[in-house]
Each structure stands twice: as C-alpha cells, then as structure tokens.
Amino acid sequence: MKILRLLCVTFLLLASSHGWAQRMPVPIINHQDVAINRPSGKPLSAEEVKQAIMAAAVAGPRKWQISEPGADRMVATYHVRTHTIVTEIRYSPERFSVVYRDSVNMKYAPGQGQDAGVIHPFYNQWVRELMDAIVQQVSKT
C-alpha cells in the first residue's frame, strides 16, 4: 500500500512539474521617450543616434537584426530557437523609444486600452538588455 501511495505521489509530482517550469506572462514594458544624455552634454544628430542604435543591436549580449521602414524609425528583431520578438525603435536627437511590435511563441496576449498586454518575461529582459546597450553606445558617441 505504501509503495502504491509513493508511486501515485511521484507520478503527480512529475506530471505537475512541467507546469511549474513554465513562466507565467508578465505585463509588457514599453520604454517611451528615454532621454539621450551624453557626458559631454553636446547634442547628437539624428544620424549619430541611428548609428549608436545600430551598433548597440550587435554590441550587446544578443544580436538583433535591424531594418529601417521609415525616417527616424527602426525595427529590431531577435530570434532565439523557436522564439521571435520584434520591437519598434523611434528616435530623435533628444530621445528614443522602444515599444512592442510583434512576437512569435512568446505567450503574448493583447491588452485593452493603454494596456500593452502580457508576454513571456524574457521579452522584457531582452529588451532591457537592448536598451542598456543603446544607452551605452550613445554615451560613447
């Protein structure tokens, strides 16, 4: 009887462990109007900001693909295994924004109104790494 009970408990633990390993979606964090601050205090041109963003896309821990669908706008795409995230980067000489655009296999669910929705927590981590790389590249320029 004890062996049967032990087998049942073991089976239930193994069956439920996959669910615990999955990460629950979190709110999407969009980074709007991040100020561009340089140590020298000198303003950058839009072209210099663009070049800093492009350098940051490949300088950070993740390699992002960049496309330019229009003036003062870029689309940054990151692929890892079966997951893809796409962000839109808008920039000017004074500030930049990185906002959610699309994703594949990231548990995205749209929000309502001003709510951007929810997504796998790695999305926010990966975008934060891109943001940090952009800030670092801008300060070098």
How is this structure best described in words?
The protein is α+β, with helices and mostly antiparallel strands and about 140 residues long. It has a single domain, classed as 2-Layer Sandwich (TATA-Binding Protein), CATH 3.30.310. About 40% of the residues lie in helices and about 30% in strands. The chain is built from three helices and seven strands; from the N terminus they run αββαβββββα. The protein has helices at about 1-20, 45-60, 120-140, and strands spanning about 25, 30-35, 65-70, 75-80, 85-90, 95-105, 120. The strands form two sheets. It has a five-stranded antiparallel β-sheet with strand order 2-6-5-4-3, with helices on one face. Strand 5 (about 85-90) and strand 6 form a beta hairpin. Helix 2 (about 45-60) crosses helix 3. The longest helix has 20 residues, at about 1-20. It is elongated. The model is unreliable at about 15-20 (pLDDT under 50).
